Sequence to fold (385 residues):
Amino acid sequence: MNTVKNLKIKSGERVLLRADFNVSMDKEKITDDFRIRATLPTINYLRDKGAKVIIMAHLGRPGGKYNQEFSLMPVAERLGELLKIDIKFFEGLEIAEGEIDAMEEGDVALLENLRFDKREKEGSKEFAKELAALGDAYINDAFGVAHREHTSVFALPKEIKRSAAGLLLQKEVETLGEVINNPKKPLSFVMGGAKVDTKLKLVSELFSHVDQFCLGGLIANSIMKFQGMEIGRSWHEDDIEDLIKGVDLSHQKLHMPKDVVVSTEDTGKAPARIIDIKDIKKSDMILDAGPDTISEFSNIIKKAGTVVWNGPLGLIEVEEFARGTRQLARSLVRSKAKIIVGGGDLMSVIDDVEATDSIYFASTGGGAMLEFLAEGTLPALEVLR
Ligand code: 3PG
Fold:
């Protein structure tokens, strides 16, 4: 893969940088800026070379049209605070076209959410050409979205003469590559969080390589429903049969919640109960893993040689339901395993319980990290080769 350091960037060149700034937000406020901070080395490298840095990113899934809730404006502000400079914010491509010429060497601009244009998700050649016209070179540092065949990561590099991987993308590929090729055994996975469809098909692919597989969150809910169990009003995905082909759900290496925290509301205002999974009522929502489940998962982490953890086990945005994930994060401190975590949302919990020093590598990828570990490559990496 061509990397940014081989690209010979000249002072004053317009460099398009695709970043993954899909950060956790609460009411248009950033709750975790891990992905923004992870991209700073590449931005600073480009600024040191005197480039005009034009960053492209997405936030959430706004469905191809403008929605203020998904604006990248708060990200531009946070980026400005971290870099201690003013960030230019371009609300559309036409505005960008007019303003890029006026940028000085080392200036940084951020384009509004690419997913406000429905062509971003379509891998559109036309949109790729429009974006390519804004720059002289293209750098992809968006590891978290490298598993998508979207315009800005998959079609755009084919429309611009010079393209390369950024420092973050390079580090992700090197470190995770080492994990796939030579894991210290036993290799244990903990998988939770949302995006059930992306993750479930990877469970099938990873299952045979992994020694212990702990599942929680919406993935576990969906499997329990599929197995005919009562999960009440819990979030889940139906029609998962095709996604978990090849997974022996009764295999002893698969560990599912034995007990859960439920409530009738997900706000934390209604009373919560810890119950056995057999006792879930129709009115209940599963909102966290219970203490027996956490203790079983913690024991697995304790005995592992390598742990890969992706996605929280409960609704961590609500204090009441963050306890299981937090408790499991505490067990990382006592483990001697090489620990790799993925997805921005887990890092805030790990920081909270002061387990950060126990992490060998924190990947900015959620689904992308899992797909890379399962397949050994990703579509957006292939186009940079
Ligand atoms: C992520 O948050 O995992 C990436 O930014 C990709 O987002 P997506 O799943 O909405 O494509």
About this structure: The chain has 13 helices and 17 strands. Residues 20, 22, 61, 144-145, 148, 195, 366-367 surround 3-phosphoglyceric acid (CB under 6 Å).
